[in-house]
Design brief:
About 45% of the residues lie in helices and about 15% in strands. By secondary structure, the protein is α+β, with helices and mostly antiparallel strands. The strands form 2 sheets. A 4-stranded antiparallel beta sheet has the order 3-2-6-5, with helices on both faces. It has a two-stranded antiparallel sheet with strand order 1-4.
Amino acid sequence: MRPVSARRKNRPLRPLTRSAQPGGPRSFLCVDLRGVENHWNQKPVDELRSMSRGSRLGALLTTLDLDPRHPLGKNAQRLSIGRAFALFDALCEELADAVLFDVPEVAWRPLLGILAPTDSAESPYPKELQAAASDDSEEGLVLLLDGRLAAEAASVSLGPSALPSSPGLDPLLWSDLRLAILPMLESVRDKNRSLLTEL
């Protein structure tokens, strides 16, 4: 059973039925979730616009009619729930310590089995967004790992000799993926970061 961090116990769990998940590439983000939540609830949109020029968040902020004096959390109350989730996703990407884009399905499926062995993951979204959503179909991210013990367990499972038996998985691709994910797990363990992925 995966250890659960005490500061995240109040987050709802989302099922990860791997066979039902659509195929295609997935991205993994190593994020300071507390920092993201602080930016969401406190940083005025005007400041976020100036710091995110040229990024996905910057593009979203220029297309939406938001009050520049208020933070995203307050502005999100006037947006459709899908737009609000997209803004939070873009903010996570903007503030991520590391991002691993476009991991192919043949590699992310076995990786998900190692990072989330319980077939469930927590929702990283603020409570007000979760409450406004009629279901979790609008959510694009899940919190896979949070906390020292979970990161250590995942690091051990990703040892150099561990090659999952997944049809079509190239050992060199798996090796590259391991080398990219392990520093993220170190950040989760040592810097209180969270590992997110998109669904």
